[in-house]
Design brief:
heterodimer; A: about 280 residues; alpha/beta; Rossmann fold; 2,3-Dihydroxybiphenyl 1,2-Dioxygenase, domain 1; 2 domains; about 30% helix; B: about 550 residues; TIM Barrel; 9-stranded parallel beta sheet; 22 helices
């Protein structure tokens, strides 16, 4: 049976703003955790003692008064002193970005700044506790396994192919048309992965507009995954925007879905699941 | 009285009053040279005199003065305070030089909870959210070279309000200014501390005594002082909606009035000095309507339920601050726009004074640049937009009048419920308001997370790689410096006098006499905030939450 995660939400110091602490307490409860809320004005000693006495898996510290740099590390020190280093500690409140590295260096696992969705905090705590306990997270899909291919936009396959085939000496595997993307693609095998040269078939093709905007060049990186639908689901719940919420059929009949580059620091990633029968 | 006659008298009285308090301009007009009249709508046959009244007249829906901002803009009062008394004093001089018209002091949390800077509970908190005040010495530095007879000062202080007010009076005396000349406000609203803000010290009963002692003392000694600022602001920040903010604030107001009457005070002696403090949130028309509804509700209560005779007792005068919890840490410059529309709703709602938040307050205390933009926002609204050139311009809008009526109705339902629970004090002790607020705040959070409510730049229209703005840092050495200063004070003052005063305070606390005079003597002897509150803690006990 999956164990219930116990969390202590604590308000260190004199700060009376407990809206965030109350909301996160309720959100973690709704997520299925057991939550103990300390109430206001707790000393680091009281927090450490309560955490140990209540045998919690995690502590969430909330502070909006600016006293976090003194109080959070003091909680960490006391936990360490009492041999309770295994408790996962996270923090939140009005905390300037530049303070976060200091807090994390003191052992705070993560600091959530204002505007963080509560679900993100819940998932983080769950994952951290499960990792600590050596339980692989039930919901998490397996991470991407390999680079399936690298997509390169070219103006013309006929002009580009000689470079790859003659000058680099690589092997052209196949050329095919992918109607869904209005492209003609050439796969060139390199070790265990491939280069995918993409040529636009019409001016409406995404490749045509890519070349118009940015010129020829690297277009996307395809990550090989299994269970693509689960992976899409997990990425979305982690706040990643997907261009495709459900997979579409790509070259070679693979199931593919693109992530929105706004979520991945401007790199266009494709998730790519090869059909089972093609796997060796 | 016939409507036309009433209107005629209003015009006559207003003209008369203007001899003493003239309007800002001889003639107000738009860019197209359309003349802007003082008042619109009241000459119409269908004008609802009973629910709207006329500006400056019962039930004050249209404003607490006849000429409103045509005579004088609202007071621009930016809440400020951080670090040491000396640093904050500099910021005050800066703000006055920038055209601010009133002061507003933020105290650090140890001061607000009655601990000296060297108390173990003060660790990490000294000078963080406001200025650290331990003794009269700090207060002298805080108010150095400020014209206390000319500037009005608002102090956000609740549980130890009596102590800080006493210090203010003592500093003024030293500057040769008598207490009768002082004007300002102490927040002094303990009920909302239990509900939403958290800086309580004592249990409700002795807390209410301290409050009514202040009412009684100021009535005869500091007559121009607003003895309380009954605050919906923090109730809203804790997650309440507009109707709850309105209802719980008025409910607390009723509790203070009842307590003062129980203490033997006369309604018309203390009610004119009650002030209010509201939040200006994002929903523009609802906010403006809320302020109008608040004025009408309070006027009806004071006149009809409590039988107050003095029109000043009927008037709800209020300060507004824009909604801190509406600010986002993401794309902080967007907050300037939020603050602008919030401020506008407060102005159209007829606020007496206004604090506009700085863009960076979701991240830290405001920098000087951010604080200046916040003040400029008010100045632009006042001087460039013309929104202050006629009185209550939203009146008669079908939508706004409907919202005003609805908010009053919803708030009255809450008031009935609270009355059945035995009043606000008892409802607070049962955790009723706290639960209602939490429920609303959690529902709001869920709506934001599932995208039903859009927060621009946070759950929609986000950008990557946000530039990180420069933030204000409080001197990390400050705690230590403040503790040293306190130790020096303690070794230099007349210790016998201190002990004697604290003992008289103790015996006064055991009895029934007004505590203000003895607290004033204590602070003049340089007893610290922590020492005075310490004695009261021993006598009154401490509140530990619901």
């Amino acid at each position: 049976m999956k164990k219930t995660i116990r969390v202590l939400i604590a308000k260190p110091g004199l700060d009376g703003h407990d809206r965030g602490a109350l909301v996160i307490s309720q959100a973690l409860r709704d997520y299925g955790m057991e939550v103990i809320y300390t109430g206001l004005r707790q000393t680091p000693e009281q927090i450490a003692a309560a955490a140990i006495q209540e045998d919690v898996d995690a502590i969430g510290l909330s502070c909006l008064s600016g006293a976090h740099n003194e109080l959070f590390p003091e909680v960490m020190r006391l936990l360490h002193e009492r041999g309770a280093d295994d408790i996962i500690v996270v923090g939140g409140g009005v905390i300037p970005w530049e303070d976060i590295p200091l807090l994390e260096s003191k052992g705070i696992k993560k600091v959530f700044t204002p505007g963080t969705p509560t679900i993100e905090t819940a998932k983080f705590i769950e994952k951290a506790v499960n990792e600590r306990d050596g339980i692989s997270s039930v919901t998490a899909a397996v991470p991407p396994e390999r680079i399936d291919h690298i997509g390169i936009a070219v103006a013309s396959l006929d002009e580009a192919l000689p470079f790859y085939v003659n000058q680099l000496g690589l092997t052209l595997e196949k050329i095919e048309e992918v109607p869904s993307q209005q492209v003609r693609v050439a796969f060139i095998k390199i070790g265990e992965t491939r280069l995918e040269l993409l040529e636009a078939l019409t001016s409406e093709s995404p490749i045509a507009s890519f070349i118009q905007k940015r010129g020829q060049g690297v277009h996307h990186v395809a990550l090989g995954v299994s269970d693509i639908q689960d992976r899409i689901h997990e990425l979305k719940s982690n706040g990643i925007n997907m261009i495709h919420d459900v997979p579409v059929t790509g070259a070679g009949g693979a199931q593919v879905a693109f992530m929105h580059p706004s979520s991945s620091h401007k790199v266009l990633f494709e998730l790519c699941e090869k059909r089972k029968k093609e796997e060796v | 009285m016939d409507k036309q006659q009433r209107l005629k008298e209003w015009h006559e009285n207003t003209e008369k009053m203007m001899n003493k308090f003239p309007e800002r301009k001889d003639r107000f007009h738009t860019s197209s040279d359309i003349e802007i009249k003082r008042l619109y709508g009241a000459e119409e046959e269908s004008y609802p005199f009973d629910s709207l009244g006329l500006p400056g007249e019962y039930p004050y829906t249209r404003g607490s003065q006849a000429t409103m901002y045509r005579a004088r803009f609202w007071t621009m009062r930016q809440y400020a305070g951080f670090g040491s008394a000396e640093e904050t004093n500099k910021r005050f001089h800066y703000l006055l030089k920038q055209g601010q018209t009133g002061l507003s002091v933020a105290f650090d949390l140890p001061t607000q909870i009655g601990y000296d800077s060297d108390h173990s509970m003060a660790r990490g908190e000294v000078g963080k959210v406001g200025v650290a005040i331990d003794s009269l010495e700090d207060m002298e530095a805080l108010l150095k070279d400020l014209p206390l007879d000319k500037v009005s000062t608002s102090m956000t202080i609740n549980a130890p309000a009596a102590v800080l007010l006493a210090m203010y009076i003592a500093v003024a005396e030293k500057q040769g200014i008598s207490a009768e000349k002082l004007s300002g406000t102490i927040q002094n609203d303990i009920l909302k501390e239990y509900i939403a803000r958290g800086t309580y010290i004592f249990p409700p009963k002795p807390s209410m005594r301290l409050i009514t002692d202040i009412f009684g003392f100021c009535q005869s000694h500091v007559p121009r002082w607003n003895t309380i600022s009954i605050s919906g602001y923090h109730i809203r920040e804790a997650g309440a909606n507009a109707a709850q903010e309105l209802a719980f604030t008025i409910a607390n107001g009723i509790a203070y009035v009842d307590a003062a009457l129980d203490a033997g005070l006369d309604i018309d002696d203390f009610a004119p000095r009650l002030a209010f403090f509201f939040n200006a949130h994002n929903q523009f028309f609802e906010e403006a309507a809320k302020f109008r509804a608040a004025r009408r509700m309070w006027a009806k209560l004071m006149k009809e339920q409590y039988g107050a005779k003095n029109p000043k007792s009927w008037q709800l005068r209020f300060h507004t601050q824009t909604g801190g919890s509406t600010l986002t840490a993401q794309q902080p410059d967007n907050n300037i726009v939020r603050v602008t529309t919030q401020a506008l709703s407060a102005i159209l709602g007829g606020t007496q004074s206004l604090h506009t938040n700085s863009r960076d307050e979701a991240l830290a205390l405001p920098t000087e640049d951010s604080a200046r933009i916040a003040l400029r926002t008010q100045q632009i609204l006042a001087h460039e937009t013309g929104v202050a050139d006629t009185v209550d311009p939203l009146a008669g809008s079908y939508y706004v009048e409907h919202l005003t009526d609805e908010l009053e109705g919803k708030a009255n339902e809450y008031l009935d419920k609270i009355k059945q629970m035995g009043g606000a004090v008892s409802a607070v002790e049962q955790g009723y308001m706290q639960r209602e607020i939490h429920h609303t705040s959690y529902e709001t959070q869920k709506k934001i997370e599932n995208g039903q409510e859009i927060i621009v730049g946070m759950n929609k229209f986000t950008i990557e790689n946000e530039p990180q703005p420069d933030l204000l840092r409080v001197d990390p050495e400050l705690g230590e410096k403040q503790r040293e200063k306190l130790h020096t004070l303690k070794s230099n003052r007349d210790q016998n006098r201190v002990s004697a005063q604290l003992e008289s305070l103790r015996s006064a606390a055991k009895g029934k006499d007004n505590l203000m005079p003895v607290i004033l003597e204590c602070v003049k002897s340089y007893c610290t905030v922590g020492e005075v509150c310490g004695v009261l803690r021993e006598e009154f006990g401490e509140y530990t939450g619901v």
